[in-house]
């Protein structure tokens, strides 16, 4: 890792290409992307394993703090698409519980209106209303993602500050069609053949597209505003 690409402040794990674009116009998957103020992001792709690898790469590059930035699904019916959550705790399905950095979280909350509470990280997406309701009942968390617990674990092992800043995309009452979920790659980019196949095999999916597109637009708008308000380090100060 060259000095030019060394991180002096925050290392940010971002799963989806659309999330990364709220921070910088272009980021290459599985590569360090420098940001201003000594920060950098790693576009990891979805999932706990991918996020863990990304977080470790950021630590190896010199990150002094770790963050997860992007979208999440609501488990609590009070959360609408576009709402921001900066949780106090992150949980995984095995019962591990990680506290986020209180002073960093307070810094974010000075710049943004966010919900606290807890966030659950899962191995597979929760696509149905029933799956979300079951997770809410079992874990008593407000929202769900697929990366934060893995990054929190890396941060804890290296004694680094950690936060997760998420914008809600799908609401607790939304079902995301499996066919559409399978029509994107690990970075959330549409697979043309997969999308055409999904629409041909499941024409009803076409009716879900406007709603899901609107949800994603609200979430990415909230992420872009959050990035502008907190800066490249996402509000972390040494």
Write a concise synopsis of the structure shown.
The protein is of the alpha/beta class and 238 residues long. The protein contains eight helices and ten strands.
What attributes does this structure have?
alpha/beta, Rossmann fold, ten-stranded mixed beta sheet, 35% helix
Strand content: 15-25%
Q: How big is the Rg?
A: 17 Å
CATH architecture: 3-Layer(aba) Sandwich
- Can you say what the CATH homologous superfamily is? Nucleoside phosphorylase domain
Distance between the termini: 22 Å
Shape designation: globular
CATH topology: Rossmann fold
Describe, in plain words, how this protein is organized in 3D.
The chain is α/β, with parallel strands linked by helices and 238 residues long. The chain is 35% helix and 19% strand. It has eight helices and ten strands. Strands 1, 2, 3, 4, 5, 6, 7, 8, 9 and 10 form a ten-stranded mixed β-sheet that branches.
């Amino acid at each position: 890792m060259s000095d030019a690409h060394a991180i002096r402040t925050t290392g940010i794990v971002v799963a989806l290409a659309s999330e990364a674009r709220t921070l910088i116009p272009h980021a290459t998957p599985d590569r360090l992307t420098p940001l201003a103020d000594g920060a950098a992001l790693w576009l990891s792709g979805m999932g706990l394993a991918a996020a863990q690898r990304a977080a470790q790469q950021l630590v190896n590059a010199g990150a002094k703090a770790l963050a997860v930035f992007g979208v999440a699904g609501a488990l609590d019916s009070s959360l609408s698409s576009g709402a921001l959550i900066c949780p106090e705790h992150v949980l995984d399905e095995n019962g591990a519980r990680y506290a986020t950095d209180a002073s960093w979280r307070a810094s974010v909350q000075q710049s943004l209106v966010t919900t606290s509470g807890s966030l659950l990280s899962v191995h597979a997406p929760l696509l149905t209303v029933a799956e979300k309701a079951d997770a809410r009942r079992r874990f008593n968390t407000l929202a769900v993602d697929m990366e934060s617990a893995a990054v929190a674990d890396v941060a804890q092992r290296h004694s680094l500050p950690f936060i997760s800043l998420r914008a809600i995309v799908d609401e607790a009452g939304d079902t995301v069609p499996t066919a559409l979920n399978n029509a994107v790659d690990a970075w959330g980019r549409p697979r043309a053949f997969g999308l055409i196949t999904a629409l041909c095999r499941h024409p009803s999916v076409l009716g879900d597209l406007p709603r899901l597109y609107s949800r994603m637009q609200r979430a990415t708008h909230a992420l872009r505003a959050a990035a502008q308000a907190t800066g490249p380090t996402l509000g972390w100060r040494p």
